């Protein structure tokens, strides 16, 4: 009798599990992928890397560490003769916007001309080239070094306001962001800039139940379900809580700091054919004047 009850109980449990075809549907895959990104954010190239690399969890991201196949010779060949692409989107982007003179005045406090390049370099200030330097705590050079960063200015458009993007490693982001907010006297706005909250798995199940209760056929339910159930957006990144503010503004200087991590993707191309790959991939848009 116990064996019979156990067998019936197992049948009931097995009937609840979905078949592979049902699990591989787009709507179910999106819900599963989003659920697996609760603690560690995936890059947009995660699926490609997960099939070919050993993945590690670092700095709030899930990154490819080492290849599963012997591809070292192929990578070396690509770097020396062709083109090799790396996904560096886990690097954090901090955007500064405001008057150019005010930006340069305060940024000069966290870097030094003795170390080489600064934010005021003419070739970088025009927006044509990307620069790199080491940041220090305000007025503390040569002590209290924060870490290396890369930066690029947005080209001038005739106005006083400029935009500066600073790329920092996720391990250094909080310290550098705290120092930038201190020198520019930026505070969090009263109304936090938060997008739509992440839907929980319970809400997703309710939405799926609403779709399945329409009484249509199974295939039609899936097609309508993909349209009815919105794709959940993962807001925030591995270094920031999704319910924290990601923009700060100064009432005295007018400088605005925004956290653009995971909003601006970053790729690195290595090899002699990198330029030709870019020219074949990217097409210049025609400028339309009103």
TrEMBL record:
A GO CC annotation given for this chain: ribonuclease MRP complex
Cited Pfam families: POP1_N
Protein name: POP1 protein
Superkingdom of origin organism: Eukaryota
Domain Pop1 N-terminal: 4-98
PANTHER family on file: RIBONUCLEASES P/MRP PROTEIN SUBUNIT POP1, RIBONUCLEASES P_MRP PROTEIN SUBUNIT POP1
One of the GO biological process terms: tRNA 5'-leader removal
């Amino acid at each position: 009798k116990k064996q019979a009850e156990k067998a019936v109980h197992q049948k009931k449990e097995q009937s609840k599990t979905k078949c592979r075809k049902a699990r591989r549907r787009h709507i179910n895959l999106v819900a599963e992928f989003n659920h697996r990104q609760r603690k560690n954010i995936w890059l947009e190239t995660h699926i490609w890397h997960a099939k070919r690399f050993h993945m590690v969890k670092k700095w709030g991201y899930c990154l490819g560490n080492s290849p599963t196949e012997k591809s070292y010779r192929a990578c070396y060949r690509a770097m020396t003769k062709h083109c090799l692409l790396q996904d560096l989107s886990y690097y954090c982007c901090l955007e500064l916007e405001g008057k150019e003179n005010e930006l340069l005045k305060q940024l000069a406090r966290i870097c030094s001309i003795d170390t080489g390049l600064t934010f005021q370099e003419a070739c970088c200030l025009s927006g044509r080239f990307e620069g790199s330097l080491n940041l220090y705590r305000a007025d503390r050079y040569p002590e209290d070094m924060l870490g290396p960063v890369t930066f690029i200015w947005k080209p001038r458009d005739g106005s006083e306001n400029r935009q500066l993007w600073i790329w920092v490693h996720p391990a250094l982001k909080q310290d550098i962001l705290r120092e930038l907010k201190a020198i520019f006297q930026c505070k969090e706005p009263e109304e936090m800039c938060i997008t739509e909250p992440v839907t929980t798995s319970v809400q997703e199940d309710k939405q799926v139940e609403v779709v399945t209760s329409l009484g249509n056929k199974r295939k039609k339910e899936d097609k309508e379900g993909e349209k009815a159930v919105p794709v959940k957006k993962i807001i925030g990144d591995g270094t920031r809580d999704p319910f924290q503010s990601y923009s700060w503004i100064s009432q005295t200087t007018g400088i605005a700091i925004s956290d653009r991590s995971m909003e601006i993707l970053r790729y690195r191309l290595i090899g002699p054919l990198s330029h030709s790959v870019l020219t074949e991939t990217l097409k210049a848009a025609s400028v339309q004047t009103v």
